[in-house]
Amino acid sequence: MRDSSRRRPRLMWGRPTAVLSPPAAAGLMPLTHKLLALTVICVWALNLIVIKLGIAEIPPMLMSALRFTLVAALLCPALRITRDQIKGVLLVSLTFGTLHFGLLFAALADSEAGTSAVIIQLGAPIATLLACLVLREPLGKVRLAGLLVSVAGIGVLAIGPTLPPPLSLFLLLVSATGWAVTNLIVKELRGVRPMTMMGWSSLFAIPQILLMSWIFESDRWWMVGTAGWHGWFCVAYSAIGSSIVGYGIWYWLLQRHSINAVVPYSMLNPLLTVLFGIVLIGDDPSPMKIVGALIMVAGVALILRRPRNLPDPTLPDTA
Known about the structure:
By secondary structure, the chain is mainly α. The two termini are about 25 Å apart. The chain is built from 14 helices and no strands. The chain has helices spanning about 20-25, 30-55, 60-75, 85-110, 115-120, 125-135, 140-160, 165-190, 195-215, 220-225, 230-255, 260, 270-280, 285-305. The chain has one domain.
């Protein structure tokens, strides 16, 4: 007789998810995977500074569309997608391409990069809570405490910089929610390689964001024609560095570990963005930023704390 407790749960896409080993299910990763996650966060933190510089020369939504066009041009010709994968990838193009990045680019036009990084990281606790509610991933008292401490750190960080206008604040909150939902979708999309997902979701996102640019932005093509090398470098970095390299590694990690093991690393993004802003574009450090950053690091340390009764993490089998 089969042990029903070992059955793999079937989710919305009709495929079983991979069964994680006890360390992976509990939110543990090998050291190399932790270093990969930290590398991605550094790339993303620098990307917010790059976007802020780029939209000074290219309209935000059009710049986002150009980013996805470059990603699709580089990846799609070499990658194939099956018919049964299209539904999930289309959904990723909406939640990740349009809601997350399209609205993030638009909000950055009237927001400071550090402030935007703080607000957008609300997606991390949202994703963690959704993983517990939807995917039944364990949270635990210590991790919950770390989550609350990290959110408190985000709140302290937000007090320092000037908050964006109400519309930009709303766009950032929707963008954060889109990022959180995307993490759950990617977790369930078994059988889709990270680069395939990135390339084809970018292709499907292009018409969505171009439509938004056509509705909300004026003089967009004139600004593209007059953009200097700084603007085009920002497009290239955002496409290759943030999308292909950053999200390629991130999706790879999500398909091998629980959401609660991977997503908390993203809560270090505001800290790194603030540091990059001070070093690269001359943002003034403030006591509130420093205090908030320290609180956030303490919260992330609690979230990632290894339970004593679990062995060292090993790479789980994947479907």
